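Subject: design request, 371 residues
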């Protein structure tokens, strides 16, 4: 008898019926949608650009060692990251994707008698993991510009709050609370609570372009702050699963002790370090993505979609026709329908390269004009 899962474990799982992970070039289906090689992807907030040759060479060299466990191999990536971020190696934590870091933090700090404050609507892993560990969720609605409402998040904290999560810029909306505006939240952070600032899209922001350090500025503020970033977006390594967290030395030490991170693979570690060495190449790509973001945003606005302001590599349109994403999918364009992001009626579009964006806009025009 197979029975069913105990209450609390059964919910929140995405429907992966028919999903096959094999070769990404192999067509696969998900929720009845076919992701053939001919489908243009605007649904995953991925980079539209393939890896540079130098990165492929580094990956090929690393693959040569795949018969070995990656014990101790993170050290060199940690050194490279700490040099770039101007912090000490002890402050850096590597994880197999930022999502693994977020989940470990929520599992480590959440629990039935604890409260977790997080933005709503935001990255689904927050709510999903909070529910899975049976912590008390305190979702705080976004501001109308799609950014986290820092004041209301501060108001939502109680003495049972163990974790506050800010997503900046926020996924799926793209809105960003200026980093300097986080201060009042830090000032009222309950004793023993951690502030986790998820900056997965940091390198697409104006603050980054202006030479800012984002929430790293708060690491030494005397309160427990953890900044989470990823190699998946700006560095285009989504398929290799490497993310990282940075905290003050003592906080990082405690989190390391509690969270049992690790599990990143040899190829990912080597690729991430090589990618760091190519930051200028990726910065130039990010500039191109940002230029396209402006163009796509204007085009969507002129088509009447009323897109939200964005500081990320995607654009959210709150008032799209609910059926538009599936009509686009049928035409070979994967965008993210708001219903799957808990924002029914909306549509999230990842910025592609100029040619892809032109094709998507033409498809949207054709569908909307045909009624
Ligand atoms: C806000 C946010 N945080 C974290 C992640 C996860 O990133 P990773 O690929 O490093 O797991 C994503 C991915 O889309 C995201 O949007």
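Subject: RE: design request

Done. Sequence follows.
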């Amino acid at each position: 008898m197979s029975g069913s899962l105990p209450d609390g474990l059964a919910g929140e799982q995405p429907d992966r019926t028919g999903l096959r992970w094999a070769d990404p070039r192999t067509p696969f289906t998900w929720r009845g949608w076919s992701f053939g090689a001919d489908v243009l992807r605007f649904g995953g907030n991925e980079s539209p650009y393939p890896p540079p040759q130098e990165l492929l060479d580094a990956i090929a060299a690393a693959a040569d060692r795949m018969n070995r466990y990656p014990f101790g191999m993170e050290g060199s990536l940690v050194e490279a990251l700490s040099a770039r971020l101007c912090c000490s190696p002890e402050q850096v934590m590597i994880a197999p994707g930022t999502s693994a870091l977020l989940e470990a933090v929520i599992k480590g700090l959440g629990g039935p008698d604890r409260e977790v404050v997080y933005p709503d609507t935001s990255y689904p892993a927050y709510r999903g993991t909070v529910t899975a560990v049976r912590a008390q969720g305190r979702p705080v609605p976004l501001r109308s510009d799609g950014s986290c409402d820092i004041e209301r998040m501060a108001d939502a904290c109680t003495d049972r709050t163990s974790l506050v999560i800010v997503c900046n810029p926020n996924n799926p909306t793209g809105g960003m609370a200026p980093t300097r505006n986080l201060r009042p939240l830090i000032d009222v952070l309950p004793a023993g609570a951690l502030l986790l600032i998820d900056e997965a899209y940091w390198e697409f922001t104006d603050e980054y372009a202006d030479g800012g350090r984002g929430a790293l500025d708060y690491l030494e503020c005397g309160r427990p702050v953890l900044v989470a970033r990823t190699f998946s977006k700006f560095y285009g390594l989504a398929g290799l699963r490497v993310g990282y967290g940075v905290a003050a030395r003592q906080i990082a030490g405690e989190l390391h002790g509690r969270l049992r991170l690790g599990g990143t693979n040899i190829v990912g570690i080597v690729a991430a370090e090589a990618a760091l060495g190519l930051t200028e190449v990726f910065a130039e790509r990010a500039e191109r993505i940002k230029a396209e973001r402006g163009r796509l945003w204007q085009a969507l606005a002129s088509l009447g979609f009323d897109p939200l302001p964005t500081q990320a590599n995607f654009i959210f349109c709150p008032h799209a026709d609910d059926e538009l994403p599936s009509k686009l999918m049928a035409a070979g364009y994967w965008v993210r329908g708001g219903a799957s992001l808990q924002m029914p009626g909306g549509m999230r579009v990842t910025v592609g390269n100029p040619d892809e964006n032109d094709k998507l806009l033409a498809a949207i025009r054709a569908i909307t004009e045909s009624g």
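The pocket of pyridoxal-5'-phosphate is lined by residues 45, 97-99, 123, 167, 171, 198, 200, 230, 232, 238, 243 (CB under 6 Å).
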